Hints:
The protein is of the alpha+beta class. It is built from 11 helices and 18 strands. Strand 6 and strand 7 form a beta hairpin. Helix 2 crosses helix 3, helix 3 packs antiparallel against helix 4 and helix 3 runs antiparallel to helix 5.
Amino acid sequence: MMDNKPEECSVCFNDYDDNQLRPRTLPCGHTFCSQCIDHAIKNGQVTCPSCRAEHAATAATLFPINYGMEALIRKLKGIEVVPGVTVPAKPIKTPARGISKKLRSLVQEQKSIISSLITSCEEVLSQLGEYRGQLGDWKTHHLQLQDRLYALVEQNKSAMKLLELEDTSVVDMTTQGEEGKTQLQAMLGSLDTVNTPQEVGTTIDTADECSIKIEDWLQKCQKLFPDVKTVHTSVKVQETIREALEMMTTETGATADPVHQGDSASSIMNKVQEITGQIPQKQLTVEDLRRMREPVKRLVEAGRVLAVQEDQDGRRSARITLQDGQLYLHPLLRQPTPAHAHTLQGSEVVGVLEPSCTLAFLDLGWAGSTRGRVTIQLTPDTPLARQFVLLCTGQRGHTYRNTKLLEVLHKGQPREYVVGGDYESNDGEGGAPLLPDLQGQYRRSGQAGTVLCFDEPGGPTSAQFTITTRDRQGSDQWFYVFGDVVSGLDVVRAAVNHSNIKEVTVVDCGVVLPL
């Protein structure tokens, strides 16, 4: 359905503005205001209100501003549309009769110059609008950083107060200790000068009282000092502030010479990118991913890096994400490309998969949420493993994404296993092979977490996969093994124990990029 009010957020129905309600685009391509995105973020993830796609996020500012939407809104604000009223077309003015052909030519030439200037004016105005949006982003970031700096200052003040209280306690106890020490020294002198039994008794009693006080003082010192909270807080706050200052000093000291901007043909935002060292639009390479410098890392974390593939059936794209220091390639899908996305050729990315791609993943979910990731170590150079990679990445158009787990066999017994992967009919009847020859040298295993093809390689359902969840007994082993679960077997077991295995789906899938 067409959106009749593009100028308003489809969640809160408020008009976009240049403050809290700025339009931002999620990696799935849908646009909402910054405020609604912030409200939707839970546990480091945001679910798109339109397509329910899940994206990693901690703040709306991680997603790019839809500058095209802002330009459209500015244009719409200059047009007043009255329902039911047809605005008549303006009559075309023709040059008055009596003007010579030469003068008409001069008029046309002047009109052409003015039209060209108007076009140039509109282009620069659009660039200025985009630049103003970037400036607004930076101002927001500075305010956020300022808040964090204020928080650090407050933490430092709190740590200082704790240290002052501790220091006061130490001074008090030191004074008591010095007084006790002086009394003990006086007692030594007194014991040297006693001459009568009565003096001995009195002096010893006094010495005992001093000794008891000092012993009590020693115990208090051991009990009171150091105060764990004070020391721990001081050390952690010092470390945090020192790291922040060192980072600031490093970045300030590494400031490069001003960039020469002699090319007047460059757009304003291209110059901004040149100054800030950002990656120019659509110029990312696999080598950039290998180096993973900070600007590239920020792009990947914001969901703005995609691998694209174009063929006779159209254009498909695959998300590239970063998690725990590893890059993940998700399946190629027909989906809108997010605004300001940076793309790589799918063939360039796929080129790094062969033959070293040995890690694939399946994200399993049920009851409306993703429950966990299953990572599988594939046996290299086997046809079944190569087929599994094709279905995890969607290179041939088919993918395991959104397929069901089909059935659990021998539930609760040593041979327990689960079957899934029918990319064709999703009912267990399909799953034809993608490769012409799946025969090869396959190992055997009786271990839990084994990934295998239950059908004869090349059979009508040999693209389906089987994951074992319990060890087999004795020498009994599985055939046609092409992988092992290295993490997430607990997720598979939880799926097996779900009340209805057919409600469990492969929410997402893909491979780890071996860069």
